[in-house]
Amino acid sequence: MSIHPPTSFQGDWVTEIDSDYSTSIARWAANAVRPAKAVAFVKNARDVALVLSYAQEKKLPIAIRGGGNSAAGASSTDGGIVIDLSRHLHSVTVDPAMKLAYVGGGAVWETVDKTAIEHGLATVGGTVNHMGVGGLLLGGGQGYLTGQHGLVLDNLVQATVVTANGEILTASDTENPDLFWGIRGAGSNFGVVTEFVLKLHPQRRTVFGGLVVYHANSLESLMTTLTKWYKNGLQEREALFHGFTQCPDGKPMNILILFWNGSAEEGREHFKEFFDIGPLRDFCQELPYEKMNSLRNGGRAHQKNYYTKGVFTSGPLSDCAQQMMDYVTELSQQLEISLTFMFEYLPTKKVLSVPNGETCHIRGDRVSCVAFATWDADKTPKGDLNSTLTKLVDILATSEKTLPFASNTGYANYIMEDPAYQPSSGSRVGANILFARNYPRLQELKRKYDPNRVFTKWCPINV
User: In the CATH scheme, what is the code of domain 206-414?
Assistant: First the structure.
């Protein structure tokens, strides 16, 4: 089949005969690379509409690439066309008077953070700043400012969406509100977003945060302190991530990533009980706000292999913590990978202040956790990652007494299953389980905006 750019296409059209083909299909995760027939670097919404029409005419699957950070390969396609927003639609413009950011569909969080903070403003963004805005936002999105400003999608004011039939629509509370409801949580199921308009909030220029490392034998003290801290209620200006991982010599260790939206003096006093445990290393400091969102970049470098598996808990689970830490160490050695299991403690009061039906994203008073595996691009894990990491997260899911096991999907952006997978009865994966009571309404929207299921690369909704 001859593949060529559609008539009037203004962007860049790359196929396997072009010198930049390999870089055009490269992704953050090496295991997410797929051999596309063509990559369309679109310049505007009209280009997107042309490519969608062309792909459907040729019966070719499409994928949408914003930041390209889906380890599951949602931004790649084997034998189809990639609509790539990253080359020409990546700019961010701030209106400081209105406290709004106009964000291109291919922008990354670093650009948002750096542009907004120049005006003393910020919005809820990713804690790894080379990640794309679109994927995080459309799947829910949470970050260090979630306690003060909610989910990333709660800060979306308006979006420009190109639907499967080529319509270029504005989605907001007042224009196409049904579409606006659907894109806030259901990912790319209804179209290609070429621009986001985000609310900005006043933000101090420096914050307190960083990495704290503890010996494995500090686990009991850590869990006692974590449990007390969590039961006292999280304050809106804080965040804490707790992880089980390995030292360079392969031995287990605990890590904390701390955040306090204030000075170092305030932050150290606030987290005093954690510092009093006696960490091996303390890298916390007062630093520029935009740098805080880059501290985790090192463990998420481009062109390595990645795999994630998510689960929810209702809080710290001391009874299974030792078992979890031991199993993380065992699996890292058995599979010959680097493995971290992270508990992401964020204040939920602001998130839960939005009624559960206002967006399609399902909210709950819960802690998102993730098993995060990485290994070199030229290597292969010594076993089945899906089954072994499922056993790992199930230790938590079965120990959890509050959240039902059958619906414990974990955070949507951590789902790694093949997008074409149709969940069986009782499975904890799939759009019908993920969106629960909102799923029938999402099916109605799918029939309206994408009846032929052009968009199926992330938690696909059946019609």
Answer: 3.40.462.20
